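Tutorial, part two.
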Amino acid sequence: MPLLLAFVACGPEEEPEEPVTPDTPHQQEQVLKLAPAHDTVFEAKGIRFNMIYLPAGTFTMGATTNAGSPVYDPDADILEQPPHTVSLDAFLIADVEVSQFLYFAVMGSNPSQVSDLMLPVHNVSFTNAQRFVDTLSRITGYRFRLPTEAEWEYAARGGASAPHTLFAGSDDAGTVAWSSQNSGLQVHQSGTLQPNTFGLYDMSGNVMEWCTDWYGEYPSSPQTNPQGPDIPSNANLQKRVVRGGSFLQSPYYLRNTARQFYFGSKEAADMGFRVVISVEK
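Running the prediction step on this input gives:
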């Protein structure tokens, strides 16, 4: 089960996302640390949260309807193709989605439509998720961030050597994910279903999770620590990748390789995030 938390102190998508910049020169000059290369418990404003160490690895990202492929998925669509090789450095990722506990402690507000500090924070835009990781970094002195799309898929799959599954930890969505089929159309506390092989909960389902990448077509060539495409020149195409699907969606959208994308200003009752941090070399 995930680490228990201890609380000490208590529309339209057309608008482009707002730039997020430090508020003061002091914040700009702060030197942020990388994480140690092992599972680590961090603390911010009295809230403790668990980060899982994921070793460096090389995996095949994406899916195909070719039945002979090791990343075969009969539901794979064109957005998930072509499968391509990705190599990643080690990093840490939170074992659960950011809770309302942690978000409120760090930001002093709670945007969630269903207010319950044990639930994942939701109704969070990419812009506000980025503000959260910047504030969390200043509080802790560590360089927290949102995951890249490649890091997210690597984590959901369980790494390079884990058995291929359609969802994060299983081919049966109901054992690992809250979807429209079993959620009662309500967000649930993270960590109540089975984790994947890395010990991560709700990588599939519950709330969708923001990634840092701008949405774009996959390359066919091998990639190392990909950051996604450059910002699209057309403002109407400037959308961020969202992964994992949600409690309001069918299992199709909860697959490890399923991709969705929204403007960074998008807020929704089923939209949240989790944090990552690079490790020392």
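The radius of gyration is 18 Å. In part three we will examine how such features are distributed along the chain.
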